[in-house]
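Supplementary material to the annual report.
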Amino acid sequence: MLPGYDLLGVKSLNEGLVVIVRSIIGFFSLLIFTRIIGKEQISQLTFFDYVLGITIGSIAATASTDLSSRAWPHWVSLLTWAALGYIMEVITLKWRSAAKYFEGQPAIIIYNGKILEKTLKNERYRISDILSLLRNQGIFDINQVNFAIIESNGRLSVMKKPEYQPLTPKDMNIQVQDNGLNTILIYDGILIENNLNELKKDRKWLMEQLNKQGVYDISEVFLAYVAPSGSFYIDKYSDHVDCPDEFV
Amino acid sequence: MKKFLNAALPVFILIIFVVVMQSGSFLKRPIGDEEDISRSIFALMEEVQNENWDGAQKRAEKLNETWAKIVKRIQFSSERDEIHSFYAALARLNGAIMAEDKSAALMELNEAYNHYNRLAQ
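Predicted assembly:
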C-alpha cells in the first residue's frame, strides 16, 4: 500500500454521523422556532403562512442533508425566516390595518342569493370554485344563501337564509339537557386520581363499578369514563368483539 | 421555576447547537504540539525546498495522521467539499513526493494550506 494511503480517502469523514447530528440540530431548531412563531392550526393558515412554513421546512431539510455547505449559514437563514415570521405575527396582532394589509380580509361573495361578480374577480375565484365550496357545505342552491364570505385563509363561511336554517330545540321551545364533558377515570390501564377526586368518588366506588362489569383489576381496562348523565362506560383490552372483516 | 425552565431550556439547546456548528474554527487548532497542521505544512515545505525526500515522506505521513485526527473533530462544522479537497491535495502531495517533484509538491502544499485555512470559516 502507498505510504499514508490508508489515512486518505473519505473514511475519516463519517457522513452518516454528520447527517444525524445536523438533523438533530434542524429538528429541534424547527420545533423551538415553530413553537415561538405560534399555534395557528393548519386550517387557520393564510397562503403566506403556508408558504412560510414550507420555506422554513425546506431550509431545515437542506441544513440536514446538504453536506457541501456548512450547517451554520442554513441555520442562520432558518433563524432569520422564523424571526421575520414572528415579527410579522406581532405586527399583525398589534395593528389591525397591518393585519388587513398582510393577511387580506374577508370578502362577501354572495349576498342574498346573488353572486357579487366584482368581488369574485378581485379575489380571483371562479364561480365553479364557489359552487364546489358551497356543495362541500351541503348547499346546492345559491338561493338558500344569505351571506357567503371568503375568509382570509381561503375558506368559505356561509350563512343560510332564515327559512333554510336548521330547526333547533330552541325554535321548538324544547328543554334539553346540558351536555358536559365526559370525565375519564381510566386511560390505557392507568387510573386518573384527580378526575376521580373531582367526581367526589373513591377507589372503592370505582372498583364496584368495574366489578359489576366483570373487571377486577384496573390494568384490564383500556378506557373508562363517566358521562355527564352519570352513565359509566368501560372498554376492556380483551373485549372479544366479533367484527365483520369486510364492509360493502 | 417551571416557567423559567420552559424558557431557559430552548435557549440552552439553541446555544449548544450554535457552539456545535461554530466549533470547527477552534477545534481545528492544535490541542497538542503534534496536531499543528499549519506547522506540519511549513516543516514539509522546508523539507521539499531542501529536496530531502526521505524527511518529506516521513513528514507527509505524519501530516496525514494529524489530519485524520483533526477531521473527526471538525466534520460537524465544516464543508464536506473543503475536507475532500484537503484529502485530494494530500493524495497529490504524496504522489509528488514519490516522484520527487519539487514544484508539484510545493503547489500541493500551498493548496492544502489554503484549504485548511478556509475550513470551518
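Chain A has three domains: 14-99, 107-164, 183-236.
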